[in-house]
């Protein structure tokens, strides 16, 4: 019991079903592995340790900057504990360096 409109629609259909190809994304063109958050996280940890141990304020501020970049470039599926610990370590480096020497920061050059 086909309707008369079905025959009209099939004959006037501009699509060519023989030419339709399923989309397959190329895996070589798209790289989802961006190492920037990992590098910034590691750099932030190093800077915060230098800020804590050597009492260098500019290292502590660089650690905060690296932690912010690491957070901004990280994916939502990554481990948030590591990013949070990097933030806390960099903030503690800034706080401890200013508690030990409350004078304004002097440039390293």
UniProtKB/TrEMBL annotation:
Protein name: Protein Asterix
GO CC annotation: endoplasmic reticulum membrane
UniProt record similarity statement: Belongs to the Asterix family.
Biological process annotations from GO: protein insertion into ER membrane
GO molecular function: protein folding chaperone
InterPro entries: ASTER
Listed transmembrane segments: 42-71
Organism: Ridgeia piscesae (Tubeworm)
Keywords: Membrane, Transmembrane, Transmembrane helix
Keyword Transmembrane carried by entry: yes
Cell compartment(s), UniProt: Membrane
